[in-house]
Write a structure and sequence with these properties.
- The protein is of the alpha/beta class.
- The protein has one domain: Survival protein SurE-like phosphatase/nucleotidase (Stationary-phase Survival Protein Sure Homolog, Chain: A, 3-Layer(aba) Sandwich).
- Helix content is about 25%, strand content about 30%.
- The chain has a nine-stranded mixed beta sheet with strand order 3-4-2-1-5-6-7-11-8. A two-stranded antiparallel sheet has the order 9-10.
- The radius of gyration is 19 Å and the shape is globular.
- The N and C termini lie far apart (about 60 Å).
- The mean pLDDT is about 95.
Length: about 250
């Protein structure tokens, strides 16, 4: 029986996390360690300036879990550095409320947790669904459990995680599954400037929700077609094609 660590960035009370923990019991022994509050758009961070706490909790179905004061990536690091013994064979992060497409993966705490596992050499899956808090997380979690079995049967190359995005399943089953590349997100952020009661300026980064550029084969396109998108992400961000060109600059210190 494999050991699975489940975490997320929406916090321990998220219905997506709870559904995932239940469904993955069909795959192996599940340990749930999640943040004590929402860390959406927190990116990949590591807490080094203060102590972290872990406390036991009980999920609504009666199963044990743990909650941490740290970020999603902290939760994974804590588990892999010794809190979970023996360590997990697979890490799954989600199910996030809202999709993580294109450039979202650089901001997402959900993806960051999976990336932390890959840094430690473990296979990992990040899972998001284009829905609100009332989405059909049970159906989504059942798909993820089947995918987890495939990952453990076939393995993943070192340095790879799978970023999964599902359409809102309340509208019916998906039209298929696509292996995709990262698409393009268009952010509509605006800076909102206000004043506090003492007359000091403060700022919010606000705006409308991002939109996507629909290009066939990309994750944005797959979700628009109501297909499940599975995008393999690599830790190595090097753009190798430009290395010879940069070498041709004949750079020197003096």
């Amino acid at each position: 029986m494999i050991r699975v660590l489940v975490t997320n960035d929406d916090g321990i009370s998220s219905l997506g996390l709870r559904a995932l923990a239940v469904a993955l019991r069909e795959v192996g022994e599940v340990t749930t360690l999640a943040p004590d509050h929402n860390w959406s758009a927190s990116g990949h961070n590591k807490t080094m300036h203060k102590p972290l706490r872990i406390d036991p909790v009980t999920l609504p179905d009666g199963s044990p879990a743990h909650v941490s004061s740290g970020s999603p990536s902290d939760c994974v690091a804590l588990a892999l550095l010794g809190f979970m013994s023996p360590p997990p064979d697979l890490v799954i992060s989600g199910i996030n409320i809202g999709a993580n497409l294109g450039s979202d993966v650089h901001y997402s705490g959900t993806v960051a947790a999976a990336r932390e596992a890959v840094i430690y050499g473990l296979p990992a899956i990040s899972v998001s669904m284009e829905s609100d808090e009332q989405g059909d997380f049970l159906a989504a979690a059942q798909f993820v459990a089947r995918l987890a079995k495939k990952v453990m049967e076939n393995g993943l190359p070192r340095g790879i995680l799978l970023n999964v995005n599902l359409p809102d399943l309340r509208d019916g089953p998906p039209s298929g599954v696509e292996i995709t590349r990262l698409g393009k997100r268009v952010y509509q952020d605006v800076l909102v400037e206000r004043q506090d009661p003492r007359g000091r300026n403060y700022y919010w980064i606000g705006g409308e929700r991002p939109v996507g550029v629909s290009e066939e084969g990309a994750d944005v396109w797959a979700l628009e077609k109501r297909r499940i998108s599975i995008t393999p992400l690599h830790l190595d961000l090097t753009f190798g094609q430009i290395i010879p060109r940069l070498q041709g600059w004949s750079l020197s210190y003096f």
